Amino acid sequence: MLRATWQRESGWPWRSAPDAEMGTIQIGRTLLECKDYECSQDEVYVPRERLRLWLYINLTDACPASCPFCVHTVPGERGGHADPDQLSKVLSKTVPFISGVSLTGGEPMTDIPLMEEIIAVIREKIPADIELDMVTNGLHIEKLPGLRGLERVTTVHISRHAAEDEQNAALMRWAGAPSKQTLKQVFSALPDPGMTVLNCVLQKNGVHDAASVREYLETAAWIGAANVSLIGMFLANDYCTEQYVSPASIPFTEDPRFRVWNHYHDHDYCQCSTGSYNARSGPVRYYFRCPGNVQGPAVCRQLVYGSDNRLRAGFGEAEVIEGTDD
Amino acid sequence: MSFSRFIELLQQLITMTDPEDEDQVRYAVGVLQNLHELARRSDKIDRRTLGIIYIAIVEFLDLLRMKEQFAGKPGDVAGNLAKRKRLAMALGPRC
Q1: How far out from the chain centre does Cα A262 lie?
Q2: pLDDT for res A29
Q3: The pTM is what?
Q4: Which of A173, A323, A325, B22 is the most buried (most CB within 10 A)?
Q5: B26-56: per-residue pLDDT in tens?
Q6: How far apart are CA B88 and CA B53, in angstroms?
Q7: Half-sphere exposure of A74 (CA within 13 A, CB side)
Q8: Structure ipTM over 0.85, yes or no
Q9: Cα dihedral angle (A232, A143, B81, A56), rounded to 10 degrees?
Q10: A39 to chain B, minimum CA–CA distance in Å?
């Protein structure tokens, strides 16, 4: 009803910023306000066909790395693990509202059997056309090609924040971070190397300008990574505030080796862009995601299933379904 | 035409086109250009999908250079679906 009224009054299907209205979805007994328009390239916001949210599943809080820019509160100090049965019950109620799923942590590869169980639950509960990503720091990366259920995974994101191994290990404060030689061997053993994404958080101590982005992309292409995600930090703590570099500040268009395919934004709240880079070892696709660090409307932007087996309306937000037996 | 239908068509064009064959590339881009014009004139497409067809026209050669990431394989239903999702994420907004 709300949507029908809005469509009639806003001259659907087109409307312009900033008269954004929100739609409402109901999960269990909880009503969630969420954005009901697609992000835009040209200030014209098109309604979404369906109101859906991305679901992050934190399999565990454990992680061997101690990245100072990690948005997770205290890596390694809490002991929870996602329970496949509990997750299955929650997914039964939330599937119609899910646009994609990310398996994350902590470090999800700390418990490979659990990871495989969770993928099996997702395979059973979530339609195959819903994207499933896994996000890892590279722990046990050599076991990735043999991971049970890998064919259900759309993309594998591996954290790597510098071109060179030593600098990457220093930034992650983890001597066990996989080397580029290891990554190269693992990627070449995957049935579909196109699923690989290297995640690079931009920071003044690391990749921070056009030259260092180029060096990083050259390394990524040499490794055989098909994609690189350049990430702007959330200003989660003092380190992030001091080290913040916006991917949007990198002058991609000034170098002919870069091609910028698109550039979307959601008002000033966040923006993203995709393009390609013509490296010596071959082309590599890159994209950036960049929160605007501007206070947006108080809407639900994602669902988070925590290692405490509770579903929340965002990181650190209120619980959506109280108790999984509901 | 819906976004998902367009992505299916685009994957088929990428699959069929040999990047080294200029005629094939021209035919495929021609298909996309004609589709864009037909969609625009018929008004039977949403603005987002229309914009993404335009991006596909401009970047088709780049997409072909990454053909292995996007092209389908006969019988590989799950793999082909994953590649369409990848294509959709490359051309559309990320979330």
Answers
A1: 18
A2: 83
A3: 0.91
A4: A173
A5: 999 999 999 999 999 999 998 889 999 999 9
A6: 11
A7: 4
A8: yes
A9: -40
A10: 6
Q: Is A17 left (phi over 0), alpha (psi -120 to 50) or beta?
A: beta
Tokens 């035409």, residue located:
B1
Closest approach of chain B CAs to the CA of A13, in angstroms?
A: 8
Count of Cβ atoms closer than 10 Å to residue A30 Cβ: 16
Which single residue is written with the structure tokens 């071109």? A163
Q: How far apart are CA A98 and CA B42, in angstroms?
A: 32
Query: Is residue B86 within 8 Å of A155, Cβ to Cβ?
Result: yes
Identify the domain containing residue B74 by its residue range: 3-91
Q: Which of A39, A276, A289 sits opposite B62 (nearest CB)?
A: A276
Q: Where are the alpha helices (DSSP H) in A127-177?
A: 165-172
Asked whether the bond before A106 is cis by omega within 30 degrees of 0, the reply is: yes
DSSP secondary structure string, B59-78? THHHHHHTHHHH---TT-HH
How many structural domains are present in chain B? 1
Average pLDDT estimate for A57-80: 80
The tens digit of pLDDT for each residue in A1-28 reads 333 333 334 333 333 344 456 788 988 8
What percent helix, strand, coil does chain A show, rounded to 5?
Answer: 30, 30, 45
Nearest CA in chain A to B88: A131
d(CA A66, CA A195): 26
pLDDT of A76 higher than 80: no
